[in-house]
Design goal:
The protein is mainly alpha-helical. It contains ten helices and three strands. Helix 4 packs across helix 6 and helix 8 runs antiparallel to helix 9.
């Protein structure tokens, strides 16, 4: 069977949304920090010192302060008076609540997708198969960073297809928060959101098997949550300058 050429993801990684004017230095820094959180380079609980970030990105501390405020508005960063900014560290209860909410939202999304006219449009088929090809390639290459990024993009791609911007917006925030929960509580041996699960979801959607895609999505989210070890972990000291050493100078 011929596989469609990989298509560009429909949306950026959830944590890469900025809230700042597109193309601005603040937008770039928010995106870089968000991606570092999403791919686990900045674990929950990491202290984000203004001085280290300003040096890492070659910007003023005032600009870093604006970035941290933007991230705090998205609940990705927690600002603690007299202590500073930290990557938000969810509690086990908060992690369970986030996955409970994702099941509600993604069930609604999948039910809308199952009601779409069949066969699916050529554009949807191309994007689904293309994204599946990207995930397969990342898995074969054992590219953990790409796998994490593509996983979030897959769920948002389905939300875009469902055609409800409100559901998609809620899911985007929930994926941000579940990324933090996974980073905080993921077991070392777990595979979390696998490309294989996504392949089965794509096949169910294309094959128009009523109810199967929705059931697979709920099972998939249940499996991701089961892989979390909801116990406190020891914080690790992070070198912010080393993480962002390769970032380009701001415009």
């Amino acid at each position: 069977m011929t596989t469609a050429a990989p298509a560009k993801p429909a949306r950026r990684t959830p944590l890469a949304r900025t809230g700042a004017p597109r193309g601005s230095a603040e937008s770039r820094i928010v995106r870089s920090i968000g991606e570092a959180i999403a791919d686990r380079r900045l674990p929950p609980g990491t202290k984000l010192t203004e001085e280290s970030l300003a040096e890492a990105f070659g910007v003023s501390r005032e600009r870093v302060r604006k970035v941290l405020l933007l991230l705090a508005q998205r609940r990705v960063v927690t600002l603690i008076p007299n202590r500073g900014a930290f990557v938000t560290k969810p509690s086990p209860k908060e992690a369970r609540e986030v996955f409970e909410a994702r099941r509600v939202i993604e069930r609604a999304i999948m039910e809308r997708l199952e009601r779409l006219p069949r066969p699916l449009s050529d554009d949807m088929l191309e994007k689904l198969r293309g994204h599946g090809a990207l995930e397969d390639a990342a898995e074969r290459a054992a590219d953990r960073k790409a796998m994490i990024r593509l996983s979030g993009q897959f769920h948002l791609l389905l939300a875009d297809f469902a055609g409800n911007a409100t559901l998609a917006g809620i899911l985007t925030d929930l994926i941000d928060r579940s990324s933090l929960a996974i980073a905080a509580f993921e077991r070392r041996s777990s595979h979390t959101c696998s490309a294989d699960d996504h392949r089965h979801l794509i096949a169910a959607l294309i094959g128009n098997r009523p109810g199967e895609a929705t059931a697979l999505m709920i099972e998939h989210l249940d499996d991701v949550e089961r892989q979390l070890d909801l116990e406190a972990k020891t914080d690790t000291r992070i070198d912010l300058k080393a993480i962002f050493a390769d970032e380009p100078e701001p415009a």
